[in-house]
Structure formats: C-alpha cells, structure tokens
Design goal:
Blueprint: H1 6-10, H2 18-21, H3 39-46, E1 51-57, H4 66-75, E2 80-84, H5 95-107, H6 111-118, E3 129-132, H7 135-141, H8 143-153, E4 157-159, H9 165-178, E5 182-184, E6 186-187, H10 193-202, E7 207-210, H11 224-234, E8 242-245, H12 251-258, E9 263-266, H13 268-276
C-alpha cells in the first residue's frame, strides 16, 4: 500500500489552498447523526454554508491512491469528496484534469477497479462520496449495475456532465431514486430559468453551479459578470442548496462564491497539488 510522504501530506496545506484544509473542523464518527440517511442530504441538513468539496481523479497520480486520498481529505476536515472516473474524452474538463484522466487510464484505472478500491470504504471514510464521470463508461458498466454498486460500496451520488436532463427524466431517474442516490445536475450562466427550476424540482442533494460555460481550471478571481450570475441564482429561492465549481483555487475565489451559495468545489487546483507533491 502506498504511504503519504511528509511532502505529499503538505500538498493538502500549501499556498492559499491551505486555509480551506488546515483550518477546517474535522468531522468525527460521532458527528454522523443518521447513518441511514443519504450522507449528502445529511451534510446539507446539518451545515448550511461554508461547505468544501474536493475533486480528484481516481487512479491519479498512482493507481492505488484512492483510499489514501479519501482518508487524508476527511482527516483534514473536508466536507465531501467527488471522485472522477477517468475517460478518454473528458470534454468538460480543462488540461489539468484531462492530463490526470489520461495518466489514470494508463495506470490501469477503470470502474471495475475503482469499485474494488471502494469496498468497505465506509468503515474508514464517513463523509459523502460522489462519483463524477461521463455517460459512456457508466453505460458500458450498465447503469443499474453502476447504481447498485454505488450503494454496495457506500457512494452517495453521481454527476454525469454529458447526460441530458430530458434523458435523465425519461430513462434514469426512476433507477436513481430506487437506490436512493443523488443525481447532481450542472447549471451554467447560460442555463435558462425554466431549466433551472425543472432541475430544482426533480433532483435533490444539491445543484452544481458551474462558474462559467468554459472547461474546468483554476482562476484567481471572479469578475462582476460572474458575481452577478451567482447573485441571480441565489435570488431564485431554489429548494436545493448550490455548490459552485470550475475556477475555485484560493481563499478569494472560495469567499467570493460562498456569499451566494452553500460552498464550493475544488478540482484542478487540488490535482495540481497532488502532481507537485505526489504520493509514494
């Protein structure tokens, strides 16, 4: 089994990113108030703002790093984790996550391997776990088989960026609901109010607010136009909480989105830190 070197452990605390890791409240097992409730639901029921979710790609930097990263993130007080399923054509991802996905595939990562790694993970990791991946590998695995395995391994929800909302409603929602999983839908500044309200009505867990219509990647700040978008969505009175992703990289960007949401998701920045401070 790989172990975290001293340098690798520092990857969770360097630059401005460290404020969101090192100074966060650690969630202890005793604080999990309802083991039967979906953990995403439980998180947003018990914490209304300042939520930090971290994304990383399964199998990166090394094939067997998944459990180590999950445990370390929970130990540092992260509220929720999104595990990326590597895919050969990640169209919504920027160069950092694309590179990580390519490397993970070369390392031998697949859905079958990932589910094997997640066996019994709930004995050690108690924060919500979401799988984020494209529809193609999930359909190759079998959608209902995928949902069933998520429940068996302790996964709480999924994000499938290229699954159209209409297709989800027609073909997949009943299956997802049957397994009490959360299907997290993405909205962008270009998403119509009508579509946003439909998503809010027919999904639960939270809504993933994409900060821009571009691909993923770290930014240093958000301009007035993006701030207006965050404010507009916050003013819609949606029943679902929102987390903002794409471009969150430091305290300034986290604070900027937290004003009008329940928190944020960090992906590219964290993967860059994993690359600079690899797990050995």
């Amino acid at each position: 089994m790989p172990t975290l070197t001293t340098g690798a452990s520092n990857a969770f605390m360097i630059y401005d990113f460290r404020f969101m890791i090192y100074h966060r409240r650690i969630i202890h097992k005793s604080e999990i108030t309802n083991q039967k409730m979906n953990r995403i639901t439980n998180l947003f029921n018990t914490k209304k703002n300042g939520i930090l979710s971290v994304f990383f790609t399964a199998g990166y930097p090394n094939l067997d790093d998944t459990k180590k990263i999950l445990k370390e993130l929970e130990n540092k007080g992260i509220d929720m984790v999104e595990i990326g399923i590597p895919f050969s054509d990640p169209m919504a991802d920027g160069p950092v996550i694309q590179e990580a996905s390519t490397a993970a595939l070369r390392n031998g990562m697949s859905l079958h391997v990932l589910f094997e790694q997640l066996e019994d993970i709930t004995q050690d990791v108690h924060i919500p776990i979401i799988l984020m991946g494209y529809l193609n590998p999930i359909m190759q695995y079998g959608f209902e088989a995928f949902c069933r395995k998520c429940v068996q391994t302790g996964v709480d929800g999924m994000i499938i960026p290229d699954l159209p909302f209409a297709d989800y409603m027609a073909d997949y929602k009943a299956i997802v609901d049957r397994y009490d999983l959360k299907m997290i839908m993405l909205i962008t500044p270009e998403t119509s109010e009508e579509r946003i309200r439909l998503i809010d009505e027919h999904t639960s867990g939270f809504i993933y607010m994409v900060s821009s219509a571009s691909t993923t990647g770290a930014q240093q700040s958000f301009n007035e136009q993006k701030q207006a978008y965050f404010h507009r969505i916050n003013g819609m009175g949606l029943r679902n909480p929102r987390l903002v992703g794409f471009g969150i990289s430091n305290k300034a960007t986290f604070d900027a989105v937290a004003i009008n949401s329940s928190g944020a998701i960090i992906g590219s920045k964290f993967i860059q830190l994993l690359k600079s401070e690899p797990i050995s």
